Fold these 3 entries.
Entry 1:
Amino acid sequence: MPGTIEFLTFTTTASTALADTALLLAAPALVAVVAVLAIDRADLLLLPLGVVIVSLLMAAVGIAAGHWYPLAIIGAGTGIAVFGGQLLAAARSVVIERRAG
C-alpha cells in the first residue's frame, strides 16, 4: 500500500512534536501554580491549571509514538508544584503569624 510508511512516519513525528510542545507549555504554568498557591489566591488557579491539563492531554498523544517521558515529567512536575506551593503558603502564614504576635 503506497504512502503507508510515510503516513506512519508523519504521525510519529507529529505526536512526538506535540508531546515536546506540551513540556514547553507546562513549565511556565507549573511555575504559576506554585506562585499562586504560595500567595493563597486559589481564585487565580483556573488558567494555570487549565494549561497544565491541556499539556497533560497533549503529552498523552506522545505515548502513541512511544514518547512517554513528557507525560511523566509533567505529571511529576504537577505534584511537585502543588506540594511546593502548599509548603510555601504554610511557611508564609507562619511568618505572618510571628510578625503579628
Note: Residues 4-38 form the longest helix (35 residues).
Entry 2:
Amino acid sequence: MTAAAPDANDKKIAVGSGASTEVPRRYAGVVAPAAAWGFMFLVLRIMAVSGYDWNTAFLVSTTLSVSDSLALLVGTLMAGYLLVAILLIGVLPLLVATYLWSVRKHQAVMLLSIILSIVTLIALTTSFHLWWLPLATAAVFGTFALIRILPKESPVRRAFSRAMASVGWVAGIAVLLIAALVQTPWVPQEEIKTTNGTTLDTFSVSTRDF
C-alpha cells in the first residue's frame, strides 16, 4: 500500500500556518523589551516623585491605573524640560546620524523618533527661549560628521559606530534617566484651600476618593 501524495491545499495550509506563527515571533522581540522598559520607567517615576521613600512610593502606586500611562509619560517629559533639553542635544544628533549612515532595520521607527525629537526641540526652544538648544544640537551633529570621516581604524570612529549600533539603548537609557531624576510629578501644580482657610500649593496625582 502506498501513501497518498499530499494535496496542494494541504501544502497551502502548512505554509499559511507557518507564516501565521512567524508574525507573533517577529513582534515578540519588540513587545517584550518595550514592556520591560515601560515597567522600569513606571517604577523609577514612582520612586522619584516619592523622594525614594518606600512607603510614599507605595501610596503613589495605588493612585495609578492603565489609563494614566500616556499622561505619566508626557507629563514627565514636560515637567523635566531642562533635563530633556540637555539629553536631546546628544540623542537627536545620534538618531539622525544612525538614520543617515547606518544600515539598520526599523527605519520607520527611527524616522518617527527623529520627528518627535525635532518637534520636542522646537517646542522647548520656543516655549522656554532655549535658543542655545538647536545650536548645541547642530554642533554635536557636526562633530559626528567630522568623526565619520576619520579612518575606520580610529578608536573614536569605532566608538561612534558602536553608539549608532546601540542607539536604541542610548535613547532608552536617556528616558530612564529622566524618569529617575525628575522629582516633579506628572500633573500640574494646584492650589487647594483647606477647611480652615489655608491655601496649599500641591500636586494631586489622583481624584479618586479613599
Note: The beta strands are 189-193, 199-203.
Entry 3:
Amino acid sequence: MKSAIAHSQRLLKIAAAEVRDRPQFHLLGNQQLAVDLVFHEVEQSRAADYKYVIIVTGGPGSGKSVVAKRQERRCAVAAR
C-alpha cells in the first residue's frame, strides 16, 4: 500500500508509550477482541494491497479510542 500520507514515527512512539504505560488503557472485555479483529483485517488489506475502512462503534466510554491507539501501536510494530 503506497500512500503519501503516513503517521510520524515520533507521534507513533509517544502514543504507543501512553497506551503501554498508563494503567487506565488496559483492554477490557471485548476490547481485545476488537483489536484482534481489526488487526486481522489490516493484515488482509496489506496482503491484498488494498485499503479498507474499518469502523469501531460503541457508546461514550466504551473504549473506542483505546482500541484505536492499541491498533495503531500494533500496526506500527508489524510494519517494522
Note: Helices lie at 9-21, 30-48, 64-79.
